[in-house]
Amino acid sequence: MGIVVQALFSVLGQFHRIAVAVFLGLVLTAVLRPVADLFARFVPRLLAVAGAVIGGIVLVLGVLALVGEIVADQRAGLQREFVAGIDRIERRLEDPPFRLPANVFDDLQSRIGKLLSSHRSTLISEAVSGASRLLEVLTVLALALFCAVFFTHSGDRQWQWLCDQLPPAARQRSTVAGQAAWRTFTGYTRGILLVAGTNAILVGIALSILGVPLAMPLALLEFVAAFVPLIGSPIALAVAAVVALATKGPLIALLVVALIVIIGQIEGHVLHPVVMSWAVRLHPVVVALAVVGGAVAAGVIGAVVAVPLVAVLWSVCQTLRGRSGDAAGREVVRAEGGGF
């Protein structure tokens, strides 16, 4: 299994932008397909797909606009709180038991200023490179949305056409394997969305109660980070702890750290087991190895893709090896009725 995953990442690395676009398209399809199926009961399929896609775009843009408005409204006050918070941290580090010299931070600020001045051209080139990367990201997102529209509209027929091109002996096995893979992928995707949404709601409520600034943007960060199992949520909550330390002091920061522990326990012992039971039960060690291996092979994208990829491969292997039995295979065919 490990050799297969490594080989897949090696191949996908050669076409990583296309691979990421297709993966995101499949994720969007897993989310939009039930909505489109619901709309299709009342309107033609094409209008149902258009309504689901447009509704999803409006929802995402609305959330981003709301977050941007919150950040803009709190920017001035947040800057003052950050400056005051940094001053408090500096004073505490100058007092026992740290007893750092007072000029350490002044020297640090001057060194940072000199470093930025001496590397101005490098920073400008990095900014230009960042603009080109932004264009690449927008291109990948556009391609992902394009794929999602067609997958949502007629993905089952596309998969069946692909299976029909195979030799007759392999068609049935490919059809069943594809259906099992899609069932696993959709189960994992919808489950991880539930985990991410639950974490974001808990974080947003807790940070709002504690009075930490930018509670909603930090909750959105938690939502995105939850797609990286095991390590995403702690990193996002660590950012929230830093914000709390700089703006509200060490007591609130300690409470945010306690929040990290509590949410980690809820995610690890309640939410993730539910997600894995929806898809394929993977041992926590397998999940950890998949995340680390994916991160080493393909960075953040690899860490996000690794777990669903391993789950899909394991589900396909179980189906093809007949561990679920012929009756289970027939049940999959009846339940899914297509590759997408």
Write the layout of secondary structure elements.
Blueprint: H1 2-14, H2 16-39, H3 45-94, H4 103-118, H5 120-164, H6 168-210, H7 215-225, H8 232-248, H9 250-278, H10 284-320, H11 325-336
Helix pairs in contact: 1-2, 1-10, 2-3, 2-5, 3-5, 3-8, 5-6, 6-7, 6-9, 6-10, 6-11, 7-8, 8-9
Tell me, what's the shape? elongated
- Share of β-strand residues: under 5%
Structural class: mainly alpha
Q: Roughly how much helix do the residues carry, as a percent range?
A: over 70%
N-to-C order of helices and strands: HHHHHHHHHHH
Average predicted local confidence, pLDDT: 77
- N- to C-terminal separation? 24 Å
Whole-number total of structural domains: 1
Number of helices: 11
Architecture overview:
- It is elongated and about 80 Å long.
- The chain has one domain.
- It is 87% helix and 0% strand.
- By secondary structure, it is mostly helical.
- The chain contains 11 helices and no strands.
